[in-house]
Design goal:
alpha+beta, about 20% strand, about 375 residues, 11 helices, 14 strands, 6-stranded mixed sheet
């Protein structure tokens, strides 16, 4: 009895909160998972699966464990949880700078900035009425549209290319449409060139900006999703994850080369199917400056697995030197897609003295029937 009394009195965790010792075990388990995540993320294909956790979990869970450790008086658990909180903060997707940067937006130039929207349309109104879909698109009233998923899903890991060009041109008579690879760039600005890319799921279109006609290169991006919607009890599920991990790596390598070879200021936007908790976020950081701090959102999100569960940010807008973003916001898709609309106002900061003659690019126009399909069975479901 005396021994039992000593154990109870000496265990601070249990004394403060019955059963409180479990907090240390929970904090330790999370710390082990986080250590594995930081080491393996982006380096082992299988870790694409654990990295699909909602990014805020990397702050919310250790913060909860830290609070519980204080409540139980378990100092060891508090140290472990606090270390995990600090170590995982960059995985959370939280943007503290957004609370400040929103008030310090660069003013637009005298001749105004160009309005650009980027949107994953979720298979181009396949499951919605085309009338509100096109009305919504028209109502965005953008100078430039960077649209993804100009195709229909066959729900077997493949997709079917579509041809809705006539309606597009009727709906946007003042825009030129460049269509390729299941992507559309619609531009009210003059199109200087369409440029071939190493990345197979990217559409680059160079536009003449208002005023002096300087060039803004736009990269309309759609990185393939990690999963096929099949049972994780099947071997096909894991084969697809491994194949797509390699596919994503090739896409990012190609995109990095394409952006590095571009002599003009660039706007890179689209559905990257990547959160701050996925290792590919390191590749995104090398592409350009992330505009999200201008959104004013401490926890920006752009994708929802179902209505009310918008915990992930998969869509990004990046710029290279010479391009300035004056405004950035997410807009509600009104049930027409599982992705929010990204809307930015952009201008060019400095004159680009290089001419189009210096730009050694491969000029081409690609229509719907020249689009490059993705491999059949491994086409990402919900891409």
């Amino acid at each position: 009895m005396r021994t039992v009394g000593v154990l109870v009195a000496g265990d601070g965790a249990n004394a403060a909160w019955p059963g409180g010792g479990w907090v240390l075990w929970a904090a330790g388990a999370w710390a082990v998972f986080l250590a594995a995540h930081l080491v393996l993320n982006g380096r082992w294909w299988f870790w694409l699966l654990p990295s699909l956790l909602p990014p805020p979990v990397f702050v919310a869970l250790p913060a909860l464990l830290l609070a519980l450790s204080w409540a139980t008086g378990d100092l060891t658990a508090a140290v472990v949880a606090g270390a995990a909180l600090l170590s995982g903060a960059r995985q959370s997707g939280l943007v503290p700078g957004a609370l400040v940067r929103r008030k310090r937006r660069p003013p637009p130039p005298p001749d105004g900035a160009v309005r650009v929207v980027s949107w994953n349309t979720q298979h181009w109104c396949q499951s919605t009425d085309p009338e509100p879909f096109y009305a919504f698109l028209r109502g965005l009233d953008a100078d430039v549209y960077l649209l993804q998923e100009y195709h229909h899903d066959e729900f077997d890991g493949t997709y079917r290319l579509i041809d809705d060009e006539r309606r597009l041109r009727e709906t946007f008579p003042g825009h030129r449409a460049v269509i390729a690879r299941g992507l559309i760039t619609l531009s009210r600005l003059p199109v200087a060139a369409t440029v071939g890319t190493t990345a197979r799921r990217t559409l680059r279109v160079d536009l003449e900006m208002p005023g002096d006609g300087r060039i803004l290169a736009t990269f309309n991006v759609h990185i393939p999703v990690q999963l096929r919607l099949v049972s994780p009890l099947r071997a096909d599920f894991y084969r697809a994850v491994r194949t797509r991990a390699a596919d994503r790596a090739r896409e990012y390598r190609g995109l990095l080369e394409d952006v590095a070879d571009c002599p003009h200021p660039a706007l890179i936007a689209g559905d990257f199917n990547t959160t701050a908790a996925i290792g590919d976020a390191r590749r995104i950081a090398r592409l350009g400056s992330d505009a999200v701090a201008l959104s004013g959102r401490f926890c920006p999100t752009s994708w929802q697995v179902r209505p009310g569960l918008r915990w992930w940010r998969l869509d990004w807008v990046l710029t290279t030197p010479g391009a300035r973003v004056h405004r950035y916001r997410f807009r509600d898709p009104r049930g027409l897609s599982d992705h929010s609309v990204q809307e930015v106002s952009v201008s060019l900061a400095e004159p680009d003295h290089r001419t189009l003659a210096d730009h050694r690019s491969r000029h081409h126009d690609e229509g719907t029937h020249h689009a490059l399909p993705l491999p059949g069975k491994d086409r990402p479901a919900g891409q």
